Amino acid sequence: MLVLGSQKLTELRDSICCVSDLQIGGEFSSTPDQAPEHISKDLYKSAFFYFEGTFYNDKRYPECRDLSRTIIEWSESHDRGYGKFQTAKMEDFTFNDLYIKLGFPYLYCHQGDCEHVVVITDIR
């Protein structure tokens, strides 16, 4: 995907298509031809990007949870040596705001545990 430096992180998040987002919640075996009202992407809107020590959480909707909280609490317990992580709202940041490394693997996480590697390969 190509993004502009002026684009918000949420624009990349919204453009990522994953089969996990298309899952149907509920029991439909008695009515298999009925179209579902909602898919997982509609029900579970929480997500984050992890770039250089900061979790950028999607907090655009009231039902969004901070998925990074569990990771941060784990890293801080028993002084695991990971240092302090930061959190921010992805809707408040553009790609121009980030300090990133070319070719370095970063993380996009959504649906609670569906993880994707994000690699920036070119900056112009």
Automatic annotation (TrEMBL):
Keywords: DNA-binding, Nucleus, Transcription, Transcription regulation. The keyword Repeat does not apply. GO terms for molecular function: DNA binding. One of its GO terms (cellular component) is nucleus. It is found in: Nucleus. InterPro entries: snRNA-activating_su3 (IPR022042). Part of the SNAPc complex required for the transcription of both RNA polymerase II and III small-nuclear RNA genes. Binds to the proximal sequence element (PSE), a non-TATA-box basal promoter element common to these 2 types of genes. Recruits TBP and BRF2 to the U6 snRNA TATA box. Belongs to the SNAPC3/SRD2 family. Part of the SNAPc complex composed of 5 subunits: SNAPC1, SNAPC2, SNAPC3, SNAPC4 and SNAPC5. SNAPC3 interacts with SNAPC1. This is snRNA-activating protein complex subunit 3. It comes from Canis lupus familiaris (Dog). The lineage of its organism: Eukaryota, Metazoa, Chordata, Craniata, Vertebrata.
